[in-house]
Amino acid sequence: xxxxxxxxxxxxxxxxxRDFVRGLLAPLPSKNCWTIAEHAGDSGPDGxxxxxxxVRWDDAAVRADVRAFVGExxxxxxxxxxxxxxxxxxxxxHTVGVQRQYSGTAGKIENCQLSVHLVYATxxxxxxxxxxxxxxxxxxxxxxxxxxxxxxxxxxxATKPQLASRMITSVVTAGLPCRWVAGDxxxxxxxxxxxxxxxxxxxxxxxxxxxxxxxxxLGVHRVDALAAGLPATAWQCVSAGRGxxxxxxxxxxxxxxxxATDGQDGHHWLLIxxxxxxxxxxxxxxxxxxxxxxxxxxxxxxxxWRIEESFQTAKTGLGLDQHQHRRWTSWHRWTxxxxxxxxxxxxxxxxxxxxxxxxxxxxSNELRHLFHVLIIEPxxxxxxxLLWSIRRRRHQARAMTxxxxxQALTEP
Length: 412
Hints:
Blueprint: H1 11-25, H2 33-40, H3 46-53, H4 59-74, E1 80-89, E2 99-103, E3 108-121, E4 126-133, H5 137-140, H6 143-149, H7 160-174, E5 180-183, H8 185-188, H9 191-199, E6 203-208, E7 213-216, E8 219-222, H10 223-228, E9 236-243, E10 246-256, E11 267-274, E12 281-288, H11 294-303, H12 306-316, H13 328-350, H14 364-379, H15 385-410
Parallel strand pairs: 1-5, 5-6
Antiparallel strand pairs: 1-3, 2-3, 3-4, 6-12, 7-8, 9-10, 10-11, 11-12
């Protein structure tokens, strides 16, 4: 709260933000303005709902404060900026950004909302930095839907790589120490994103599809065709990082691409990963201002999985996907406070200097549990549970009456 408190001019919203983040850190069965307000001991949900909608504060400025906080405590010149999107399944069509589209979270086309996230990953920690809601053309080109959802007039359609590029540019402009960028095929197949990273002098390891083409001394070839022609001696077994059940061992091969040149000096490679059991291949386009060995590129590729861990922590423990907000501003505010809570957990777990014998280091989930039991629970205010039960049932009765009344106007 010392990091972001200055963004809230009055004491009431500062207190509500503190209580809101405490609610996100608490083991509530579900997280929304009602449950968080009850946890905080408020007399009703109006204050928390106002914080998401009517109270004046700048969520982008709060995320900038979080970025500075992460840089101060986790800053590393070899850090990796990891970009990826996640999907939240939604019903209906009125929640901002929702349409039927492919969601990697669901693994198929679903009615969902997509957002691009940026994670700061070092050898010892990883923290969420920034987010951008993906607004499909069906939304960006529909003035009526934009108005109902409160989408700002200056917001226009942007692809996911364009959203990622804007967030990375903000990080570089702010001076956050980093050297690499990692991402999946959505970002690796966009040449403009790669060109922008080279302009910023950021090395990258970006996944590409098997049909991606590269230029060699013998012409232009698909990357899967190049992989098929590699001799057995080209492959090396290298760990992509430590996991909960051991090292993640894969076979790797890489080849320089001296003909892939542009106005930026540097070194291009094609990196290929082979699963040691199934033989499945994955391909990466890589670039660095200076020559780097294979194991360094492999380490950056392995660091990309940190964003999946961040998503898991933020969704299962902090309610990233449990919001019930339909409008642009409230979505960004909810997500920003989740990012703030995640940054707190990341910095707190990284602050451990020594690993006790016979114990693993504190995880984010374990720290969240201890923080709630030892810090939040003994000090929080308690509302009357019977009053909250009455309030919920009254609200549900009004909603049901409203639905039936609306239906009676159109149905026989």
